[in-house]
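Researcher: Here's a chain I'd like modeled. Treat it as a single chain, no partners, no ligands.
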Amino acid sequence: MASNTPAGLEYPDSFWRSLHHLNRFRGFLALFFVFAPFYGQNAPLDVADSRWVMLAALFYGLLALWFGHVLKSRRPAFDQQLIVHVLSDVVFLTGLMALAGGNASGVGLLLIVPMAAAGLHPRPIIAMLLASLGTVAVLTEQTLQIFLWQAGNEGYLRAGLLALGFFTVSGFSHVLAKGTLSSVQLAGEKAAQAESLARINDWVIQELQDGILVVDADGRILQFNGRAESLLGCRLASQARLGQCAPALAQFWQDWQATGRNPETPLTGNTARRVRARFTQLEPGRPSGAMILLQDMTELEREAQNMKLAALGRLTANLAHEIRNPLAAIEQAAALLGEEASTPTMARLTRIIEDNSKRLNDLVEDVLLLNRRDRLQKESIRLEDFLRDFSAEFAQAEQVPDEVIHIEVEGPLSILFDRLHLTQILWNLFRNAWRYCKRTPGSIRLTAKRAEGRVQIDVFNDGEPISAELQRRLFEPFYTTDTRGTGLGLYIARELAGANGGSLHYVDHPDGVLFRLNCVPEGGQTDTERIAQTDSDFPAGNREFWTFREAIKPS
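Model: Modeled as a single isolated chain. Structure tokens:
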């Protein structure tokens, strides 16, 4: 069978650590068997002449010391060292089993550990061969027990079951090792892609069809691209004042500082182009400067920019999809470690791995759900039945008392909506409501009614109203005040609402928190301004602007 491992593969540190752990186990066994005869009548092994056991254990301990020295240099290769380690364990433990009276002594069970290590070999045929050698050694020892020490034949059954355990453990270990090696190879490919993307980003910033200017609070230029120079028709210099090059843009900048409103009229300067300027604070709430987006007002350039950002969204979804494979391997390995945790510290560390793996998996699921928002299966939904079923399901899943949730539907209402999308939106809103409400009867109120040609679904809770500062960032992706959250719940809910022709927004309420979902009624028309609505979901009010800001954010 040919190897599935690429030539020249560098084994991950986790593989070498496993080999170190195996060697520490070997040293522990050697130390144990050296002192085992001193227990007298309580000795763990029934051996007539304990000197042979002590001598073999001393040799085994010296072998463990030598293996530890060789492991530090990582020479020879991992697969070659692994074979030598496993064969050494098979020889010593089989010999010790023979001295202790055969398989009935229980020493043969110790071979399970090196058999698990054998599965780390990248070639399955070698892993199975090592398990076979362990099987041959156990069966040979049992045969010698019969012919030399007149033991009974019943030991063959125990030897056969032990051999079956060798193959099972080695097989499972090899499956896990193969997944880890695939993850290492994938990580290398992603690292190369990330390096390539970094170079592309540097190039894209300079080749953007829109001009970019970053100024501080005093109007000094901090950063710009070549397109900004082209659109303004002048040479820009770092630390130069904006008014020295573009007086009209400097006037727009001063007006924006005073009013906070972007200019409605285009900029006309040293070129024949009509340039639209858009300002965004670098840090909301602080006078730390602004980023200025200069756009040449042509439809072709806008379409080209949207295509670039659509490609970025697909890339993000693909990366999230690829993360799931190594993440699944981590979760499975953590579960296995948890089952064999021998100390409270190891159990606590294993729980940390499992908790953070779950959080990463939730984040990946949110990103993948966002990428599937356009895969609609709209249907007519009767709200009265749907909302009551949903409320009951949520109360049961989240252990919410029935009297906390109050539902009110004004008349028979039906909407055109994807059922799974509607469930996801309401689940996010209800989860936040349950988290922050007072948890008294009627703390969460769900109402539905028809208004202005739309069906309004309001989710209210009696928690503390949201401050004006936080309202500006409610639907910003990855922003959250909860350390356990991903910051994507409200963002995804708003995206799914827009994909179904509706909208989701926050409504000021003096007594609590209110989110309003506007839906298309059955027989109604969808919103023709979905593209503009999607752009408005970004915190800068412009998709291109927000993407650029994230790209230049320091790590």
